[in-house]
């Protein structure tokens, strides 16, 4: 009786779990957004006063790259400018020797995944062992993930190398999620990465 009751409880428990909400699939597009920010711990942001920003978005897909300036790109660039100004930085052109520069990229990585059928070696061995024949085969499926990448470069303190000047990245932010291509959420995305980067504020 005890074993049977335990078994029934297990079935009920499994049924309950199968009917419960999936915390991932139940997220709205906006709730799926993830913001990752990082900065150079040695950087003294109070030394920077002016900034400039790229005039288009760099689009990188696997080993290919180009630029884009559609409506959502313009909206993102403008909102980044607004946030930098709210942090106390003065917006200047690239010809006016800005202290920092803002790069904006749209990164897409595509992966080819391989899965072997049957999924379990147990079943493959069982059918093969009894002579019925259950040949394995490979299935292929492709996944693709995109993200925004925003970087701040230190133009005020360039590094001199034999090949020329290089500039350190002193802050960057990545935005991921199913809604990153939604123009209606551009302001929220840009505001959020600055909202969790209070150390950038100079006023």
UniProtKB/TrEMBL annotation:
Pfam families: DUF4136. The keyword Signal applies. Keywords: Signal. It comes from the Bacteria. Residues 1-20 form the signal peptide. Residues 37-196 form the DUF4136 domain. This is DUF4136 domain-containing protein. It comes from Dyadobacter fermentans (strain ATCC 700827 / DSM 18053 / CIP 107007 / KCTC 52180 / NS114).
């Amino acid at each position: 009786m005890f074993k049977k009751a335990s078994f029934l409880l297990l079935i009920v428990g499994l049924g309950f779990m199968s009917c419960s909400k999936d915390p991932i699939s139940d997220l709205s597009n906006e709730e799926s957004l993830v913001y990752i920010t990082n900065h150079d711990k040695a950087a003294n942001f109070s030394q920077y006063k002016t900034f400039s920003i790229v005039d288009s978005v760099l689009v990188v897909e696997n080993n290919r790259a180009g630029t884009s300036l559609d409506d959502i790109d313009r909206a993102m660039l403008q909102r980044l400018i607004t946030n930098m100004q709210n942090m106390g930085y003065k917006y200047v052109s690239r010809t006016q020797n800005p202290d920092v520069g803002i790069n904006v990229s749209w990164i897409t990585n595509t992966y080819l995944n391989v899965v072997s059928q049957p999924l379990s070696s147990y079943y493959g061995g069982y059918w093969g062992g009894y002579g019925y024949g259950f040949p394995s085969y490979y299935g292929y499926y492709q996944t693709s993930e995109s993200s925004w990448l925003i970087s701040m470069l230190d133009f005020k303190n360039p590094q001199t190398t034999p090949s020329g000047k290089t500039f350190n990245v002193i802050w960057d932010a990545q935005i991921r999620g199913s809604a990153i291509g939604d123009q209606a959420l551009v302001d929220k995305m840009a505001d959020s990465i600055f909202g969790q980067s209070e150390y950038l504020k100079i006023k």
